[in-house]
Amino acid sequence: MTTRIPPPLTQFVVKMHSRCDLACDHCYVYEHADSSWRARPKVIGDEIVAKAAERIGEHAAAHRLPAVRVVLHGGEPLLAGPDRLRRAAEAFRAALPPGCALDLRIHTNGVLLSRAFCSLFAELDVKVGISLDGDRAANDRHRRFADGRSSHPQVLRAVALLSEPAYRHLFAGLLCTIDVENDPVAVYRALAELRPPAVDFLLPHATWDEPPKRPAGQGPVPYADWLLTVHRLWESDGRPFAVRTFESVHRTLRGFSSLTESLGLEPSDLAVLETDGTFEQADSLKTAYDGAPATGLNVFAHSLDDLARHPGIAARQSGLAGLGAVCRTCPVVRSCGGGLYAHRYRSDDGGGGFDNPSVYCGDLMTLINGIAGKGGSSGAGVPAQGTEPLLPAALTSSQLDELARGYGSADTVRALARSQLALTRAMLAAAWDASGQGRAEAWSLLTSLDASAPAAVDTVLAHPYARAWAARRLAGDLGTGLGPLAALAAAAAVRAGRGDAAAVPVRGGWLHLPTLGRIAVPDGEAVVTGTAEGFTVRAADGSVFTALDEPLWRIRLAGGWTVSLEDTDPLRDSHDHPVSDRLPDSELLNWTGALREAWELLGRDLPPYAEGIRAGLTTVTPLRPGPAGRDVSSAARQAFGAVGIARPATAPTLALLLAHEFQHVKLGAVLDLLDLYDRGDDRLYLAPWRPDPRPLEGLLQGTYAHLAVTEYWGTRVLAYDGLAGGPADRARREFALWRRYTAEAVERLAGSGSLTAPGLRFADGMRTTVAPWLAVPLPPAAEQAADRARRERATA
């Protein structure tokens, strides 16, 4: 049985030139173990580029990819010349299927970058990344010409070109390789002064055979100390640019995906094409041994599916199972991910190959713990790591205004997620206290794990349905017993992998481990033990199980969003509609393709909503289909981060349902922090889109959700401007209907007399958002059709 869909390759490094005009002494291509560059052509041939473009186009079409990234690389890619770069860019863009976007980039040392190159890249929409290690002293330590001359002035000239208004949109950021003998403060300030959109701080490539330098007097973890100094400056400056390393640590500590292959457990989706047409694994492997990146495959004889199945690629896609025993027992493994694969290499017999911790192991642990800044657990109460007060102070004034307008940036949604995690902890504590504190061993295990492996506990408690049990218990539903609490403790023990055991009652033949999946186990009490290798389950009849029968489906989408399809959790029935049974493989494929297409549409048409969705929507629960012609979706009030949806017929409809339901998710989290209305108001209010009157909260929820609906149809109307036909007419009709419904509902809320001061602020924000849409002109036929629909709904 298929347990997961192997992730397709979505990032491609294409070597345009195999030589370089600098002689950087830390370069992994020319200065480390691999010497394959010597036998390769200096420049890639047009026939190789054409075949590579064809392969990428086939792969994108077969896997219904909404986007792929191609990075033109080297050596120094600008040595290939403008004509060859133009032909390559045009070939890759032309080969992609309709609906698949190309993120085309070039990474250069900047020495040859000129206004002519910038104009070419502006024409071809090629983003440009520049290598720069800091101020002149820092940069000249390694990045020099072969004759010893400094490259710093030329690189600054390149950055200045990219900072001009005509080219600023092309500037992808700076890449800085760390040298701990460089002053981190000076390096950070020099880079920050250039106002880059992003900076990648990279550990210098090293292995256990060739370890990184650790200067005397700098302590045992100089790279962590260096990065933590930069992190403090970056935080104090208000995060003026993106830093993937820091952001990845923040994300993985909350259970989300990493933004870089050097951290986290997300599968690698990267392939490299050399100038001779051979496929290789990640370039960083060149630091391990001569020939380490080789695959034996080439662009003419092998497809990208062939490459994805290569054992070396697969080894970097197996997550926790692909790590050595030491890493699997580490409390920060979910963030560290074992570090960069190449940095684990050791050639000696005692630990040969890559089955080792990273040579930067101590630095990574110190860095992650330093960024997390976590202390111990909170005594007898619920584990309280990473919590924030359940007060309006959890949101800044500007974040509250973002949400009032219907939006919410990634940082704002993350603030909501932190407050929701704190609330989940408090509700679990209350439910446990109300139970008479039976099954104390499960609670004791959770608090113990929170002190030693807090990320494991955070990840499990952030699961949307962890709170569902507590909410039911506190509402008086005792039918599930304390089993779900024991299951949470068991799942945390498995994630921690330190040998803890939890007894979990089994009913109905299934043992469910939240965030992981379920195992078919005989009824009775099963003992779950988290081990370095994974877990063992000893059933009541003595049988032992070591693998999930039905793992949680996880789908990785473009832009770093990973979403789970939850079809195993027994508490997922928190929605107002029946949930689907376990998805067969064919339906899983349908969901995967539909989600990829819907996510591409959201990013294109609703970017202000998509940013928050990526930050906070972790789970989609498949629902059973409704009556023919009716779309079914739901957001459960006690399941932050989840929406329930019956897969609709089209990806655009799925995009609309995701945006609509996540509005309910966000507003529910806000209502847990703030009173937006007088809860004593028991009157019923007529919602324009429903024939039956609703409580005030129902009207508020519907209005907030329909802000996204209005913008969805509004963007489609703008896209269809001047066009005729059925889809265009429908978009205009729906837009006319929903903008009027939403505007009318906002005024009904504002005039209720029951909104608090924050509630009136929300009403003002929603009014501000919908007002520009009211001014968009529409043909009379669209308005007339909307009037008919309003009358029909009013009498339904």
UniProtKB/TrEMBL annotation:
Q: Which UniProt keywords apply?
A: Iron, Iron-sulfur, Metal-binding, S-adenosyl-L-methionine
CDD domains for this protein: Radical_SAM (cd01335)
Record's PROSITE patterns?
RADICAL_SAM
SUPFAM superfamilies recorded: Radical SAM enzymes
- Outline the extent of the Radical SAM core domain: 5-239
Name the Gene3D superfamilies on file. Aldolase class I
Listed GO MF terms? iron-sulfur cluster binding; metal ion binding; oxidoreductase activity
What is the protein name stated in its UniProt record? FxsB family radical SAM/SPASM domain protein
